[in-house]
Design a protein that fits this description.
32% of the residues lie in helices and 26% in strands. The protein has helices at 8-11, 15-36, 38-47, 68-73, 107-123, 142-154, 166-176, 185-198, 218-228, 341-350, 386-401, 429-432; strands at residues 87-93, 101-106, 131-134, 157-159, 180-183, 208-212, 231-238, 242-249, 256-258, 263-268, 281-288, 299-308, 320-321, 326-327, 332-334, 337-339, 355-366, 369-378, 406-410, 425-427. Bound molecules: 5'-O-[hydroxy(phenylacetyl)phosphoryl]adenosine.
């Protein structure tokens, strides 16, 4: 019989029990952090809050926030709550701006993280007979090793191809009969494109894909599913908390279940820091309540989403987060208007017969005015009027964004493909600051 959950007793735990478990772990975590991490002790003292003040779950809002800047300021080991010798792995993220940040994991932390990913693989129909091709990059980025160790935990056969060397990837996929593919959605799009060119779609044994690490739209999901003949699942995570597996989709795909036995989520107003009522849209804040190595309290992810506490048909009781709509720091402000790359992607994918979803946004400032250009590839089948298509896209974008952008339609394959996270935005304004 097909396995439904990886850890049924945890994944379907009644909500009252989840809350009890969370309160117990939160008290434990706050106490040890206060005793072992000087930054937190100082901040809690400044805020006049002691570990004994955490009496119920809502007391979490008394605790100070943690930001990415803190991870930079206390780089590399000053936020560890254990001795360095207990750390068995370092993962890091460079980001597009700023200094490196690192995250240290104990053996137990790695085991828990593996459980997070394993829950996703099983939810995506995986089991010990599955053949999982991991095409996320291996190394300091958490995608490769996270998917790898989680799949091994399920007992699947893992093919650690990492990203790149696309035709060879696809040969392996056909020859070894990979059933599950793990990579970024942009790389999945590229793989789908190459499968088509190689004419090998009928040789694939793929059933499902586990894609994350960057925002992607429902339209992109449809294209990937179509090109590879699979069901595509969304997985979320971040280096600072744990890589892929912080949250994951079940077969109903109505948001990603957050591993609430390990993490307490909150939604705050990104401007005021105030906790918002259930169901509100805002910034996701995460507290790691079981992590030993580098636990974080109220970490501001910068990701914007909504939490959904309504029951899920899959039987899992852990809260679902809606697909992050963007990041507070990804948001572009162009001529005073807030623009998220995901809005542009949505328009392009709506027009997928005429254009491909490969695009790049270029923003600059000329004579104190922002310029806003979007390079888009025409689809290989396009045989219409280029000028008319350009006008059509410009009109749709104006109505979506509220400001005008200049569209440049390019020949197919002229924008560089991504093997990891796609780089969609080139903001030249920063260079002049
Ligand atoms: O991207 C971890 C990961 C690897 C997740 C593989 C999923 C799969 P970072 O490089 O630290 O870690 O980037 C974290 O990526 O704060 C989000 O802004 C974004 N992100 C991650 N997953 C998703 C997703 C990994 N499913 C940052 N949808 C996060 C939208 C995502 N954005």
């Amino acid at each position: 019989m097909e396995r439904k959950y990886f850890q049924p007793e945890i994944e379907t735990m009644p909500r009252e029990e989840i809350k009890k478990h969370q309160l117990e772990k939160l008290k434990w975590q706050v106490r040890r952090i206060y005793e072992n991490v000087p930054m937190y002790k100082e901040r809690m003292d400044d805020a006049g809050v002691k570990p004994k003040d955490i009496k119920e779950l809502s007391d979490i809002s008394k605790l100070p926030f943690t930001t990415k800047q803190d991870l930079r300021d206390y780089y590399p080991f000053q936020l560890l709550a254990v001795h360095k010798r207990d750390i068995v792995r370092i993962q890091a993220s460079s980001g597009t701006t700023g200094k490196q940040i690192v995250a240290g994991y104990t053996r137990n932390d790695l085991d828990q993280w593996s459980n997070g990913f394993a829950r996703q693989l099983v939810a995506a129909g995986g089991d010990e007979k599955s053949i999982v091709q991991v095409s996320y990059g291996y190394g300091l980025f958490t995608g490769g090793l996270g998917a790898h160790q989680g799949s091994e935990k399920v007992g699947a056969m893992v093919i650690p191809t990492s990203s790149g060397n696309t035709e060879r990837q696809i040969r392996f996929m056909c020859d070894l009969g990979s059933t599950h593919l793990c990579c970024t959605p942009s790389y999945a799009m590229y793989l789908g494109e190459t499968v088509k060119e190689m004419g090998v779609k009928n040789q694939l044994k793929l059933k499902a894909g586990i894609f994350g690490a960057e925002p992607w739209t429902e339209e992109m999901r449809k294209q990937i599913e179509e090109s590879l003949g699979i069901k595509a699942y969304d997985i979320y995570g971040l280096t600072e908390i744990m890589g892929p597996g912080v949250s994951y989709e079940c077969e109903y795909q109505q948001g990603m279940h957050i591993c609430e036995d390990m993490i307490i989520p909150e939604i705050i107003d990104p401007d005021t820091g105030e906790v918002l009522p259930e169901g509100s849209f805002g910034e996701l804040v995460l507290s790691t309540i079981t992590k030993e190595g580098q636990p974080l309290l109220r970490y501001r992810t910068r990701d914007l989403c909504r939490l959904d506490y309504t029951p899920c048909a899959c039987g899992r009781t852990h809260v679902r987060m809606r697909k992050p709509a963007g990041r507070t720091d990804d948001m572009l402000i162009i001529r005073g208007v807030n623009v998220f790359p995901s809005q542009i992607e949505e328009v392009l994918l709506r027009n997928s017969i005429e254009v491909s979803p490969n695009y790049q946004i270029v923003v600059d400032r000329v004579n104190n005015t922002d310029t806003f250009d979007i390079n888009v590839e025409l689809s290989p089948k396009f045989n219409g009027d280029v000028e008319a298509e350009k006008k059509n896209l410009e009109t749709q974008l104006r109505s979506m964004l509220g400001i005008g952008a200049k569209i440049h339609l390019l020949r197919p394959k002229s924008i560089e493909r991504s093997e990891g996270k796609a780089r969609r935005v080139i903001d030249n304004r920063k260079l002049h600051d």
